Amino acid sequence: MTAVRKKISRRRTPLQWLFEAPSIGKMAPGTAVFVYGLLLFWTLVVLFPLYWVLITSFKTALDVNNGPVFLPWVDFTPSLHAWRELLVIDYEDTLRSYINSIVIATLSTALCVAVGSMAAYALARITYKPKFGNILLFVLAMLGGCYVVWKAGVDWKIAMTAAFAIWFFLLKSVGRFFKKSVGNGDILFWMISQRILPPIVTVVPIYMMFQNLKMLDTHLALILTYTVVNLPIVVWLLYDFISGIPIELEESAQLDGASRFRTFWEIVLPLAKPGLAATTLLVLILAWNEYILAVFLSTSNAQTIPILVAAMNAGERGILWWSMCVVIIIMIIPVVFMAILLQRFISKGVLLGAVKG
Amino acid sequence: MKKQLTTLVGSAVIAGTTAFSPLQAAEFDGVEINILTRPGPVIAQRMVERGEEFTEMTGAKIRVNEVPFAELFQKILTDWATGTNSIDVAVFASGWAVELADGDLLEDLTPYVEADEKLQFEDIAPFFREFNQKIGGKTKLITIDGDFQMLYYRRDIFDEMGIAPPRNWDEYMAAAKATHGKDLNGDGEPDYGSCIFKKRNAQSYFAIMSVAAAFSQTQGTGQGFFFDPETMKPLINNEAWIEALNVYKATGEYGPAEELNQDIGDTRALVQAGRCALAIDWGDIGPLSIDESGAAIRDKMGATPMPGTSRVLDRETGKLVDCDAERCPHAIDGINISPFAAFGGWSGAINKKADDQVKQAAYAFLSYMNQPEQSNVDVTMGWTGYNPYRNSQLDDTSKWVAAGFSEEFAQNYLGAIKDSLNNPNMASDLRIPGTAQYQGNVLDRELARFLADEITAEEAVANIEAGWEEITEDFGRDTQRDMYKASLGITN
Amino acid sequence: MSTVGKQGTPSRRARTHRISEWLDRQSSTLFITPAVVLILVFSLFPLVASLIIAFSRFRLRAGSYQVRWVGFKNFEKQFFGSEQFHFLGTFKGMSVLGWVVATVAGVLILYWLYRYCRQKFWWLGFIGRIISALMAFGLVLLFSATLLSGHQFGTLGVTLFYVFVGCSLQFAIGLGLALLCAQPIRGRTFFRVVFFLPLMITPIGIGYAFRMLADTTKGPFSPAWQWVGLGDFAWSTDPWAARLFIVIGDSWQWIPFVFIILLAALENIPKDHREAAEVDGASGWQIFREITWPQLLPVAATVMLIRLIEAFKLVDLPNIMTAGGPGIATESMSLHSYFAWRSLDLGQSAAIAYLLLITTVVICVSFFNYVVLGRLRQGNA
Prior knowledge:
The structure holds three protein chains of three kinds.
Chain A: H1 2-8, H2 14-19, H3 29-56, H4 61-65, H5 81-89, H6 91-125, H7 132-152, H8 156-173, H9 184-193, H10 199-212, H11 219-243, H12 248-255, H13 260-271, H14 273-289, H15 292-297, H16 305-311, H17 321-349
Helix pairs in contact in A: 5-6, 5-17, 6-11, 6-14, 7-8, 9-11, 11-14, 12-13, 14-17, 16-17
Chain B: H1 3-18, E1 32-37, H2 41-58, E2 61-66, H3 72-81, E3 89-93, H4 97-102, H5 110-114, H6 126-132, E4 134-135, E5 138-139, E6 142-143, E7 150-154, H7 155-161, H8 169-179, E8 192-195, H9 204-216, H10 239-250, H11 264-272, E9 276-281, H12 285-289, E10 301-304, E11 311-314, E12 319-322, E13 346-350, H13 356-370, H14 372-378, H15 391-395, H16 398-403, H17 407-421, H18 435-451, H19 457-475, H20 477-488
Helix pairs in contact in B: 9-10, 10-19, 18-19
Chain C: H1 10-54, E1 56-61, E2 64-69, H2 73-79, H3 84-87, H4 96-119, H5 123-145, H6 155-181, H7 188-196, H8 203-214, H9 222-228, H10 239-268, H11 271-279, H12 284-312, H13 316-321, H14 333-342, H15 346-380
Antiparallel strand pairs in C: 1-2
Helix pairs in contact in C: 1-15, 4-5, 5-15, 6-10, 6-12, 8-10, 10-12, 11-12, 12-15, 14-15
């Protein structure tokens, strides 16, 4: 085939030489200049703010406030004062937040991906037909429970157990009269729609819930909350991904007598590895960077590192730009590390299943 | 839900305090006090250091928890109101305390203070002692930082150009105009005549109240200038506030282009870099000018009370009228000034539902921070963020000179503070439930819209009045009026 | 599951067998239960709780809280009361242009409904379309009465600006970068990792970093500003410049997300189609339109849907960069709700959040149903 192409492109005008690819997989010089030029320009756009953050972390208050200086050693003398303050003098606070963040982000990501991939697999492969009426009953029972707690002051544990029992009883007795049912698509949509909720709406009720459970300022509270907040994304991305995996392999495995769990574990998950890697990275980043929920659910034991960034805005004492930049930089490092580690998966990874239509 | 428990603990406290005397060695072994305040070196760091001393003396462990400033109040309120009670002591702006006291969440410190001799209660400047620390006549807060706004000017520049420190807003404008565009710090770039923070959702509403106070309050602190104490109608939709809004906006002409997006931190940084001829700020500029970061303004600043006015509000007509002896009894040279205690200063309060022993230890610690022996040193250091609030801190310049002030600047700075603090017409910040909504929501938003040219000054004051009425109705007019009266010390 | 090779007495073996069999029978329930339970507990309960708050005045009291039912008052305030200018915008009569645009849009929407009724009619679909049509007409009316008539629009308009301008920008640049990276270039891994970087920074950090960059007195571009003669112009004091800058900050962070997914999709398109077309002498644009774009479309739609949802929730950037200023020019609905929440007006905060939720759901579902599904059907046909 290359021979054919060479024949076609033997005689070319200068303009063609500049912009027409000499062969497949090669770029014409003009195109190359254009492509690399744009790529380098965007590299600059991405890197300049990061560079600015990096050098600001070495500046003193005077360097920042007296107008811009750009090059260390050339127009200002770099100083390690901010780094020393955070990593040597006040290292306990920094380290504690850092470890909290690592524990909370990784555990919530792991839990989220585990629960989410199971749900995604189930929705992609198993047909669910919950009766519409039963769901309605459930919601009514729970609302009734809430109402009783609110108005009559009944202990919420008793009220909720009772509501659940009543629902279960009704389910077994009248449940079979309901005809209309909802499908997998509806369940999927319901799960995804949870992501639409702005966190501000839910933060106060969640706070009160954890307060009732005496779980405020614990790692577990944040892990659970992050898991739920990010679950829709995992289900969504992995649902697309898993439904794109050819079903024949699973069918033959099931013919051989493998259970669903085994099929899931030994066939589906390995095939979904790229998707898993990309989803994991995305969820990890989201959990690592979350702020509002962290502020509310933690006081000191479970305080995460984004709070440390916000804390560098000292109100009427101005923003401690230098210290803030240090925190931002130490926050990026582990994520960059993870990204490079997972990079070879990501290249194929975030292939949303819709690709196969 | 937990009402009975509250009263139970409450009575236990009163019983406990009679036998109480602070600071006996190893008195509080094994007690841990959880303090919540905002993060960073300012305010918190000194508490950590003093806390270590305190632990050595009494055995009580001090744990300082920090949350970002913007989230501090919600955090305290939710922690205490929902009964989480993971915090024993909160250090915050005294103005916020009313909301907490309204929910009956604060320990009454009056019996503690009465039994405490080391505190030297009478040494605390009257405004802080009688207005700021008290709610409804009961001491509920212990001050660790005294806050009110003052006017700062570049003494070196003003002397050189032969300008006197401005006493009213006309003089302020003239001085700003004369100095704007000049190079003030010798870096060859033109600098600014006036730096006043104007950012939304930051502290700009404190500045506008500071300006408006002199126009509308003349009869002393007890008069108040936010509401009519009888009807609880806002005293906003009148010429005094319109004038104040116009003055505040006009200062922007001699300020940095970005002033609308600058909060106090930004303007303070500019002042420290020597780029402002005039600035409004809390007491911090004094100690900061001898700080390493303030090298450009070392010994070059002067301080004076906030500018006043000779035309003040007639509350019956809503018009501005000239001052006379009856109308402005506290005027100096015919100029009515009213230093505004914006923010009220950082103060400590104790959770009513903390354990009895924790409460005693917590009080002992707050008292330790406040006692002249400690605080008179702390206020001279810029990085602590503590501003003076005791007479002994203001009368004696030696500690300030020892900290690095020149005698001349110490006199000037402390003089300005004393002039403000001793002014019987000092204006108190709004201290009623819903303050965050009155000021942080309605006032701040309308002010920002006015500064951004979205609405006129007349529309702004009309909107603020309507918004405030709505909030008052929401909270209940009668209870709000009673709270407002009590906050001004009116008892009838 | 086979039990061969496992140790134990026959009866025990039988029992494990029974358990595993039971597990297998219940597997369909077990797979989905954890996710459903988690979402029910942590999402549904807060949703219901905040719905109650949205219809009441909420005050924290010693040891408990006080909830007073006020009906639709919190919502009424946003649409007709003292918060109208803040949420919707300032209404002071409509200009001629506003009337023209509103009328044209109304006619177009009616025609769209009419066409649907003619083609095929399904009552659920019709109701859905009525809702979308009402929302669309309402937004056009709002747009005509504020922006086109020279009045200011409120947080709803600002949010829509962030969503539509931001998402378009991110999609355009993300797609462009993905196409560039799909060229036969060296160092693709390098570019991929570098372009991915902004996504890893916490939004708060980006807010502060961009505030530093945008500072015209001490930021890095201030010499350039002075040189161009804009020393006295500050982006933060001009409403449109401030909004634009926030969109730029948000885009800087989220372009990598669009980029990385579109690139993966591009790389997955079989090469032979494109090569065949190239041999046939098709131009680059033709190849893109006929081969690349149809294959890219489903992925692009999902990406944009995710971005739409997240963009509606934008709060950190405007809060940090301008705190909603100048005036209320950069205040998004999330920020509006956040400010109300911060001043302890939880009822209003929840009401605004619910309005945001409704807007987001209607727009996202409309986008999905009419644009994405419509295109997919066309593509498959």
